[in-house]
Amino acid sequence: MAIIVGFFIATYFAPAPSNPAAFIATESNPALAYEHVGAWFGKQGAPVRIQLLGVIHSAPNRGTAILRLDGGEPQVYKEGQQITSGVYLTRVDASGVEIEQQGQQQKVMMPMNPVPFPNKALQRLP
Q: 98-102: long-range contacts at Cβ-Cβ below 8 A with a sequence spacing of 24 or more?
């Protein structure tokens, strides 16, 4: 009997339940809703193919790399710069670069036999 009386007293003095709909907000834009839900499970898209064409390593944390993404045009990126969505150039040294992609570090090494310049690519100025 005491248990039943205790249960009813606890239920009577318990705080009123809040509105659960206030915690579940619906997003009018489905793309934004995907962004919120994607954060729960991790937003892993297709990995980006990165080709290292050259590096300029002058001092720690000040390196620059020439990269080609997915066979596109070569572009210059500074150390610490975001290359594309979710892909960062984290480190540049003389032997290669480190890329953070989908939360994982990857090392991209300089090619052993770089492609030679065309004959008239570098010309002496008069």
A: 99/50, 101/47, 101/48, 102/42, 102/44, 102/45, 102/47
Q: Is 24 left (phi over 0), alpha (psi -120 to 50) or beta?
A: beta
Instruction: Tell me how far apart the alpha carbons of residues 70 and 50 are, in angstroms, rounded to a whole number.
Output: 6
Count of other CB atoms within 10 angstroms of residue 87: 19
pTM above 0.90, yes or no: no
Rounded CA separation 107/105 (Å): 7
Question: What confidence tens digit (pLDDT) does each residue in 5-30 have?
Answer: 888 888 878 777 666 655 565 556 65
- List where CATH 2.30.30 sits in the chain: 50-109
Confidence of residue 82 (pLDDT cuts 50, 70, 90): very high
Task: List all residues 6 or more positions away from 49 whose beta carbon is below 8 Å from its beta carbon.
Answer: 69, 70, 71
CATH number assigned to the domain covering 50-109: 2.30.30
